[in-house]
Amino acid sequence: MRHEVHMGGGVELPFGAKIPTSIGLLMAGQGNPKRRRNRAWFFGVIALCIFGAGHAAPGDPSVDYDTKDARLNAAYKALLASLDDTGRKALRDEERQWILGRNTMCKVPADTVVKNPCTTTQTSFRADELEKRMKGRVAKPAGTMVAASTLAGEWAYRSDCDRGHSAEFAVQKTSPTVEGTWSDGTNISGSQGRFKGDWRDGKLYVRFCSEDGGIGDYPACPAYADVGAYVVPEGTKLAWYRTVGAPSENTFDKYLVLGRKPNNGDVPKDSTCKDAD
Description:
Largest sheet: 8 strands, antiparallel, barrel
Number of helices: 6
Helix content: 25-40%
Order of helices and strands: EEEHHHHHHEEEEEEEE
Number of strands: 11
Number of domains: 3
Radius of gyration: 29 Å
Distance between the termini: 71 Å
Structural class: alpha+beta
Shape: globular
Strand content: 25-35%
């Protein structure tokens, strides 16, 4: 390709950049052939640097983050617009707590924005979650509150197998979001905290926080992790399914089946022990 050389102002390149006239003379073919060949590589490097200076490199983390953040903002605004005043306040509070949880998980200093693989991934997961919640509201807005109200109260599981196992799931609030407490552990160790849930397609998708100082899989309350489980009624029982693999894969395995806990009592123990490995 031939480029015009203007002695007073430099050379205009096809992508709008301008280089000094001295470099332009090399490009235009001034000098003997041998010198032109020896200098050809030099001009190529200069042109590449000029062209690349104003363009983001492929896979730039900041570009990936901005794309995911735009998705999240769009989903958040759409969901916010679909709620009443109480629901909007709850969603705003939830979003603040999610940001706190993400920044804690990704070790982001206070009052800063960090665009790295961790924050990008968590932002993408959150956008997925809000988009699914919006679709759930559009698809089945009426059945949500009915289903949530049927779960109000305490659910529990007990077993003496191996090291023992006990878990509780208490639904304390069903509107505008489902909230409550959870605990899970053995005779040796365990953890507990709070949860928030959202109904989609007859399932309560749950996000957990820990009251054990953020030890384990979940951030310290009141910051909540991304969806880590869902619960669904099975007759008179409540089945608890946990995520398997990356949250983005949206894969769940059945974990426990809980019974409704009677007043001033406890659920019967599960006596069906699995064989030890």
